[in-house]
Amino acid sequence: MPTPPGLPYLDVVHRFRQLTSLPVAAYHVSGEYSMLKAAAERGWLDERKVALETLLCFRRAGADIILTYYAKQASKWLMEEPDL
């Protein structure tokens, strides 16, 4: 079964967070990742800012765990500016 994109389901992540004390995970799917990469390559957006904001959206919705293709890059960005 295909995994639905995570961003359109932030309301569901939020509802799960409200209903359980168990860890809640969200998957930032490959299509969302590819969309950001392609837009950044064309100069349409700042990849770092948009990728970190996207991951922050998952956290604000209540995700404790975020599975993302941006994991390594985001950790580097966050180490450069830990106040984010």
What is the number of domains? 1
Label the overall shape. Answer: globular
Helix content estimate: 55-70%
Q: Reading side by side through the largest sheet, how are the strands ordered? A: 1-2
Number of helical regions = 4
Low-pLDDT runs:
none
Structural class: mainly alpha
User: How many β-strand runs?
Assistant: 2
Distance between the termini: 35 Å
Strand content: 5-15%
Average pLDDT number: 89
Radius of gyration: 13 Å
Model description:
- By secondary structure, this protein is mainly alpha-helical.
- The protein has helices at residues 10-19, 30-41, 47-61, 71-80, and strands at 25-28, 65-68.
- Helix content is 56%, strand content 10%.
- It is globular.
- The protein has one domain.
- The protein has a two-stranded parallel sheet with strand order 1-2.
- Pathway: Porphyrin-containing compound metabolism; protoporphyrin-IX biosynthesis; coproporphyrinogen-III from 5-aminolevulinate: step 1/4.
List the helices and strands and how they pair.
Blueprint: H1 10-19, E1 25-28, H2 30-41, H3 47-61, E2 65-68, H4 71-80
Parallel strand pairs: 1-2
Helix pairs in contact: 1-3
Properties at a glance:
mainly alpha; 4 helices; 84 residues; two-stranded parallel sheet
